[in-house]
């Protein structure tokens, strides 16, 4: 516990690899970010971008053979990426809460939801059974379950999808964690329920000062919820910055293409902007910038050199276009 | 050659019946029996459980139009699609495609001819392609099934054309589905759907399983194909922004009923039904305009025991006494319809 004022979560140069016969597949490559107290960091990207893998690495649940091969993860000044399993298990649930996409698989169908929440509370907090039950009821009403004292003895199947996700949130909050890692928490829900859950996450984050890492593919959810956003592509961060900047004035050509390809309620463009091709597979990540074969502004340097993260206003952008004075190769035939 | 003949017939039919809508659905309903087996019911003294998945749906789709059905899960939009395409018999009501009744009084030969003109694209491109067939065989199957060509070389040329049409390489016909990404698979599904020269495509959530950048490619492709081939779409989606982009007219479904239909632009500009307003409000605001959002509480009720009267009344901010008693009828308001007592009485 060195600095309580610093970020809650600090990820530095994280690299996750899956070793195989022909070497190693790099699923997360040199990823760095911080999340401050009470802040929601959105991590957005398409499937295979490495966003869930980053979240899984943070909570220490990487499935072998996947492993962290470089970088560090710090939780409130304590390094957690190299902790023994048993120690990490105690941090998980206590200091890091988790919410996954499918609320049905996050809950044990054989136990009443009350038992599951009480178990979590008693594992991590020094409370008696009766106190824990009282606290579980408070948590359930806090996440918007009406008649919590009656519903606490229901089984997961007796709840609807939206209600189950509320229960999962209550479970994640049970031990008052400093950080919540939410992986696609609204993806399985209908829009009206999605809006309710987003509002709930925002309120909880504000009231309790919990830091949230919100992983999603949905830019709309990010725009509504996040303070800052990291856009991931092929295991790397393409652009990270305040959500307003990234969404309204994207700097990276990938972010721009991504934003343009989302149909909106206001615009009625005859055609959507489209990025040709698709995300490279892990076995065939291009040399230089991973996005270069799909980029409309590609120039020689992009094919050779991997872009560094360049600071633009309050954002960091991994794109050679942002290098104002190209120091190494002036040959850039821009667009 | 047989392709040309059938195309010529299509053109004749198109010009003959051009005033009549291509698809006319009247009073369409579907009830599923979800009760336990008879013996269990007797022992446990339970009633029969009936799920009214679709009730009294009326809609017309004109040629070259994209009619979209939107709604949350369980609203019955996919059930409507299955009945329209001929995969699921309705409990009552009729589906007329170009004057032929899909479910009654049409001879087998006419039905085969009709089926050729209707094709479907499904949500999951991983589940809707046979993993053991080569792409060429998958796309050629409708050609063979409808006897459009018996000539191997001709079929192959047609498959190559279709692959080019959807933006793939003709050489891809030798590959298996697992060699393709999700977006490419959906292109294969579209090529297969187009191989029988259909006029009417029913697309059930065609892009929900795809990433946004790939979704944009598929939506653009579908619009291009519509312009080139004069297709008519019934487009089903839960994503209002996608629907806004694709549809010329939109029907909003809630608990098995069509609560509002309107031309696309009007629906988004001035939604009439309170449920439509709620749906529009719930869409995350990408422009970050700070638009005030009215949060509607509650969830979709259990469709086995829907609320009496208007099924939306427990969540509706405008609900009054009549809504709890009487099921609202879909009434016309200019080019649109709405099934709402508040709208009818000028309260909305």
Rounded mean pLDDT score of chain A: 88
- The average pLDDT of chain B is 88
Enumerate the spans of chain A where pLDDT stays under 50 for 5 or more consecutive residues. 325-335
**Topology, number of strands of chain B:** 12
Instruction: Give the N-to-C terminal Cα separation of chain B.
Output: 57 Å
Describe the 3D structure:
The complex is a heterodimer of chains A (335) and B (348). By secondary structure, chain A is an alpha/beta fold. Chain A has twelve helices and twelve strands. Chain A has helices at 51-58, 85-94, 103-106, 113-124, 129-142, 148-151, 161-173, 191-208, 219-225, 243-248, 253-260, 300-304, and strands at 9-20, 23-35, 40-44, 67-75, 78-79, 96-99, 179-183, 211-216, 228-233, 236-242, 310-312, 315-317. In chain A, strands 6-7-8-3-9-10-12-11 form an eight-stranded mixed beta sheet, with helices on both faces. In chain A, strands 2-1-4-5 form a four-stranded antiparallel beta sheet. Chain A is globular, with a radius of gyration of 21 Å. Chain B is an alpha/beta fold and 348 residues long. Helices cover 36% and strands 20% of the residues of chain B. Chain B has helices at residues 2-16, 38-44, 77-85, 108-116, 135-145, 152-165, 182-194, 212-229, 240-246, 264-269, 274-282, 321-325, 341-344; strands spanning 23-33, 50-61, 66-70, 92-97, 100-101, 118-121, 200-204, 232-237, 249-254, 257-263, 331-333, 336-338. In chain B, helix 7 (182-194) runs parallel beside helix 8. The longest helix of chain B is centred in the middle third of the chain and has 18 residues, at 212-229. Chain B is globular, with a radius of gyration of 22 Å. The A-B interface holds A 46-47, 160, 162-163, 190-196, 198-199, 217-221, 223-224, 243-244, 247-248, 257-266, 268-276, 278-279 and B 72-73, 181-184, 211-217, 219-220, 223, 238-242, 244-245, 265, 268, 278-288, 293, 295-297, 299-300.
